[in-house]
Amino acid sequence: MAGPRPQAPPLIADPEALAEAADHVASAEIAPGIAGVIVSAFGDPGQAALAAKLRVPVIGIGGAAARAAAEGGRAFAVVTHTPALETSIDRLMNSAAPGGALPRNLPCRGRPARAVEKSEKSR
User: Fold this and answer.
1) DSSP 3-state assignment of 51?
2) Could you give the 3-state DSSP secondary structure of residue 111?
3) Are 73 and 99 in contact, with CB atoms under 8 Å apart?
4) Predicted confidence (pLDDT) per residue in 100-112, tens digit
């Protein structure tokens, strides 16, 4: 398990943080003998770049979720607390599951930073 990268953004809430996270994921050093990699950030930052340099499957949780949700041509929606990423999420959903129908991305109320603050206080 590679684990979190300390230099990476603590929360991906906007396109700039998504790009920064992509750089960190793409440069990850994967130990020999690993048979697959899961990119555990919904926007799949760096997934394509990491997959291009490895000879094992590199699966992002966002793309995997889109493929599962769209199976059989089902319509699906994404509910997110990061409205600044709406365009990026829509692009990922449409490219990962072109046979599905993503009617729209549904931002919810709340502040992403508050969730991180609460999580850090509970440690």
Assistant:
1) helix
2) coil
3) yes
4) 766 665 666 666 5
Measured CA to CA, the distance from residue 12 to residue 74 in angstroms comes to 28
pLDDT in the model for residue 119:
46
Angstrom distance (rounded) from CA 41 to CA 10: 11
The owner of tokens 């603050």 is 117
DSSP 123: -
CA pair distance 83, 68, nearest whole angstrom? 23
DSSP category for residue 28:
P
Helix (H, G, I), strand (E, B) or coil at 44: coil
Q: Which two tokens stand for residue 69?
A: 């949700």
9: three-class secondary structure by DSSP: coil
Q: What is the CA radius of gyration of the chain?
A: 15
- Give the number of residues written for the chain: 123
